[in-house]
Amino acid sequence: MLRWAVIFFVIALIAAVLGFGGLAGTAAGIAEILFFVFLVLLVITLVMHLVKGRRPPL
After folding, report:
1. Which is more confident, 8 or 56?
2. In Å, how far are 22, 27, 48, 54, 55 from 30, measured between CA atoms?
3. pTM to 2 decimals?
4. DSSP string, 1-57
5. What pLDDT, on the 0 to 100 scale, is given for residue 56?
6. Each residue of 2-19: b (16+ CB within 10 Å) or e?
7. How far apart are CA 19 and CA 42, in angstroms?
8. Where are the domains of the chain?
9. CA distance 15 to 8
10. Which residues, at least 6 apart from 9, have a Cβ–Cβ distance to it below 8 Å?
11. Can you state the angle between helices 21-52 and 2-18, rounded to 10 degrees?
């Protein structure tokens, strides 16, 4: 997911340099949403890992 956020960010940068303001804004918005979804999933994964903990060996 982070990869897609970076891809859309690069698209936004290229579109902004070329003067496509609408496309750049849309791509930047998508990149921002994907980045925040990535952060939420990362936090959920870390919390689940900490809650689960390590099991004692059998």
Report:
1. 8
2. 12, 5, 27, 37, 40
3. 0.70
4. -HHHHHHHHHHHHHHHHHT-HHHHHHHHHHHHHHHHHHHHHHHHHHHHHHHH-PPPP
5. 63
6. eeebeebbebbeebeeee
7. 34
8. 2-52
9. 10
10. 27, 28, 31
11. 160
Neighbours of 47 (CB within 10 A): 10
- Per-residue model confidence as pLDDT tens digits over 19-58: 888 888 888 888 889 989 999 999 998 888 888 876 666 6
Contact partners, residue 23, CB within 8 Å, separation at least 6: 11, 12, 15
Enter the tokens of residue 24. Answer: 């750049």
